[in-house]
Amino acid sequence: MRDAALVPLLLAAMLALGAEEPKMGPKLEPPDALPPAPAGQAWRPVWHDEFDAEKLDDTKWEFLEGKWRAAACTRKAVSLDGKGHLVIRTFKEGEDYFTGVVRTRGKFEHTFGFYVARIQLQKQGGHWSAFWLWNVGTRDAPTLEGSPLRFEVDIMERPWTDDRIQHTLHWGPYPKGGKSLGEVARVAGVGQGWHTFAVLWTPDEFVFYVDGKETWRPRGVEVCQRPLYILLSDEAEFAGWAGDVRRAALPDEFLTDYVRVYDLVDAKTGQAVWKPKPLASAPGK
Length: 285
Fold this sequence. Notes:
This protein has one helix at about 1-20; strands at about 40-50, 60-65, 65-70, 70-75, 80, 85-95, 95-100, 100-105, 110, 115-120, 125-135, 145, 145-160, 165-175, 180-185, 195-200, 205-210, 215, 230-235, 250-265. It is globular, with a radius of gyration of 22 Å. By secondary structure, it is mainly beta. The relative contact order is 0.23. The model is unreliable at about 5-20 and about 280-285 (pLDDT under 50). Strands 1, 3, 4, 5, 6, 7, 10, 16, 17, 18 and 20 form an eleven-stranded mixed β-sheet that branches. Strands 2, 8, 9, 11, 12, 13, 14, 15 and 19 form a nine-stranded antiparallel β-sheet that branches. The protein has one domain (about 40-280): Sandwich (Jelly Rolls), CATH 2.60.120.200. The protein has one helix and 20 strands.
């Protein structure tokens, strides 16, 4: 009887040993400074690009071409340098200015998570680099009386050449009638060397980070419950917060070492923890 009673216990132990651990994704280097995961949960990379190929991965990114403020977007402004970096250049040909934008629209659109990029910023004024999320043009972008309802998360914009970085949220009717809230973060030495820029996006809040340190936790804002796509861009202007690109010593560029997205998952099942709230509470509803 005693041996028979042990059989279920032995079977359970064998099943436990044979059970597969949930796949937590690749181990990425260098590791990111992720927010602490609650007990029983873990961070899993769900999308990333390390830019270590010979050319930009068109299964992950698309080029934006055409007029973009004072410059024209062109593929010629976007390249990989062979050292594991994406390069977006701003340059002049004749009397015309050119820059670059890449985005994951239609290729990777995601809801919630920790989004981080490691970037070396541009040196000149008159144009600005940006790492951001957007929903305009997605299949399920909400509308109100036929007009799109934008949700934009500017994780990092750098229109200045000092130690300031801009974080901004935009939501509501687009292109007019929406709301915005922003924060200027001061980060000593941000214009020199490499820095990480990140946002934690949960169903309840956004939290912004530079180099793993929290820089902004906005209150009283709508929190998007629908997928957004990623953009890396540079914008030029003749007058405005970045100054005048005609006064810049061009060409100028900013480099991106990697872009990564992590989901918070159940450590046992590997299932994502965060779920969208009912659409009635989504932006514009």
